[in-house]
Amino acid sequence: MSKIYVLDTNVLLQDPNSIFSFEDNEVVIPAVVLEEVDSKKRNLDEVGRNARLVSKLIDDLRLKGKLYESVPLCNGGKIRIELNHRSFHQLQEIFVEKTNDNRILAVAKNLSLEEETKNGGRPVILVSKDMLVRVKADAIGLISEDFLHDRVIDNHDIYSGFSDMYIDTEQMNSFYEVHKLPIEGQMSEPYHPNQFVVMRDALSSSSSAIGIVNQTGTAIHKLIFDQEQVWGIRSRNVQQTMAIELLLRQDIPLVTLIGKAGTGKTLLALAAGLLQTEDMGCYQKLVVTRPIVPVGKDIGYLPGEKEEKLRPWIQPIFDNLEYLFNTKKPGELDDILAGMGSIQVEALTYIRGRSIPDQFIIIDEAQNLTKHEVKTLLTRVGEGSKIVLMGDTEQIDHPYLDAMNNGLAYVVERFKEQKISGNVKLLKGERSGLARLAADLL
């Protein structure tokens, strides 16, 4: 049976192409949604870009017919702008204020009541990313759904970058001797290039080894940088050992690190970047940046030059650099960085149009990037550069993103089959006992 989907504003602002995601059903956009989209189109952020794209898509559809009646879509469905059914009579005793959300609910409810009076009337479904709008819809007897088409993964089942394997003693001894284990017949689950494998002896609880699947997928090899000390930092757990391997490998230009606060993502990435930039000379510069998304209420405009404005946002990076350089006095780190000249702290705002060759690029808090933003970043990477994206997909401050549709998860899932990328999900917090307990309990 054909259905009618009424779209909330946040669905269009999250994914402008959402109007093509409902197969051969009818998509209805209330007039108040167009007003909300219009109010956002002058924004200079991702929301403003999506508002402008929605406006262009609808304007293009206008050329195919009368939008207040219905216009066919390329997927077999239809779309129409709903100018009627705005009566607030059905909701005035339940929701007193005529907010935009309540107006959208009124349109969906009136459409649903009209369809119920018809023979073979179609179900009316309100689609919204706003949980409270869906709760309100349920309260007035209206069917509602979240928009799930933009999800990269389901049920938080993101690719971890490693798996366990049980082998016999003979195979374990062979791996220790020749540092290689043929993969055919060994792994029952699908594997990916540069995926780590924790091998355990099926008959012995104490014997184990860590290997990495080669880029052709034919064998598991011994780690190249096992037990490597990086700028004075040693790995404290298995996943940190895996992360160091990826960070130091010249043949893996894209690395993604996922983990809770305190798992060592930023510290390891900075240490590996400093080693390869300053000591080994593999890269000309170490570029560090992070999205400017506040936690809690925004503190507003900041005084000073670009570097001074960025300092509050980049302070976590400087905290890790102070630890790596073992600075004790105020201003000592600034003097060191000024003398080195090869460490650059940049804002994502100025990344468009740039080409960044021969540099080690670190993007912290990448979970707050949208799919479009992360695409913009990766397409800036020049020849000979390495980029590291890291963050915690459970700590998202962006209002239109969640653990299953953010830019970091998008990159992890889309690149897991590629030979040039590697991913590790760090599990154990190493900042302190208190930080580890807080990450687990809070």
Strand content: 15-25%
Radius of gyration: 26 Å
CATH architecture of the largest domain: 3-Layer(aba) Sandwich
**Beta-strand segment tally:** 17
- Mean pLDDT, to the nearest integer, reads 85
InterPro entries: P-loop_NTPase, PhoH, PhoH2-like, PIN_dom
Pfam families: PhoH (PF02562), PIN_4 (PF13638)
Protein name: PhoH family protein
Keywords: ATP-binding, Nucleotide-binding
Summed up:
It is built from 13 helices and 17 strands.
What does this protein structure show overall?
Residues 3-135 form the PIN domain. Keywords: ATP-binding, Nucleotide-binding. InterPro entries: P-loop_NTPase, PhoH, PhoH2-like, PIN_dom. This is PhoH family protein. With 442 residues, this protein is of the alpha/beta class. It is 34% helix and 18% strand. It has two domains: 4-145, 5'-nuclease (Rossmann fold), CATH 3.40.50; 236-441, P-loop containing nucleotide triphosphate hydrolases (Rossmann fold), CATH 3.40.50.300. It contains 13 helices and 17 strands. The strands form three sheets. The protein has a six-stranded mixed beta sheet. Helix 7 (238-248) packs parallel to helix 8. The radius of gyration is 26 Å and the shape is elongated. The two termini are 45 Å apart.
